[in-house]
């Protein structure tokens, strides 16, 4: 059974993609909520410098040493960014734009000068090729298991353990850093630990999916989840779910259309973001339009109730409280006045006696609630 699973290229590709997406979205959720999500892009590029430096020092192209070295490069990227920001001469976005091109360029230069014959390719680092992950295997017992599956599985578990263990502290540091400092929770240390995990996830993912898809998974699934809910734990869950859906649907569409698998996975994260933007239950455009329409209709009914209440039991009631008089007093056209009257009748707020409109007890109570709110 397990042998059949590990020997299935399609299943391995989708599983690795889902693990990359899940691991990335776990750390990406906190970055998005902190407004520092583009640090993932900086880290995704600057890890080239860390990878080359680690190779120059250890001659190792992969493994835990590479992950730690690249992770430290990511922390260096953020440290240099914060150092520039602290001068108050550049803003944070500009500082990011200054730091990561420098580190990326240094990595490319070192690669061309000292590691020209080594299989470390900047194109692979940035774009990867998830379609070949099932070929690079290691022996685990009696099974041949894709190395990326083990690496990304370990990073996913590590990220999940970090968030689970420090959930309350991370939540407070994300939404109220000043209070976290006052309580002695060291939000700065937590932030750097988060960036260390982000960097580790980036270098673990680059061999399979590349930095570009990694950045897409860090930013888009959490942003999609944030459009669907305000609960932090649910954002984590929905972000992982979006990553899984994007990986599976992206693979099948890529095979059907004969296009890049990683590229189609990234496209599907964007498609899901657009769907959440349109169909989200609270922040979706359609939901907002429906709420505005409902509020507008409620305001029309309330306006009609107040108008009828003001002229109730007056000598002019038979003249003022009729449908065609609404055009003059409320500046409604005939069609709008007719719609509001019909809606109010259906809601049993008014009743018609010939042409005269009269409030029911419910309509009268609604008018009093508006005119006499303290009654």
Summed over residues and divided by their number, the pLDDT gives a mean of 87
Low-confidence stretches: none
Give the total of beta strands: 4
- Major beta sheet, specifics? 2 strands, antiparallel
* SSE series: HHHHHHEEHHHHHHHHHHHEEH
First-to-last CA distance = 73 Å
Radius of gyration: 30 Å
Helical fraction equals: over 70%
> Per the principal axes of the C-alpha atoms, what is the gross shape?
elongated
What order do the strands of the largest sheet run in, or round the barrel if closed? 1-2
Strand content: under 5%
Based on secondary structure, the structural category is mainly alpha
Task: Report on this structure.
- α3 (39-58) runs antiparallel to α11 (210-226) and α10 crosses α11.
- A hairpin with a 2-residue loop joins β3 (350-353) and β4.
- The protein contains 18 helices and four strands.
- With 375 residues, the protein is mainly alpha-helical.
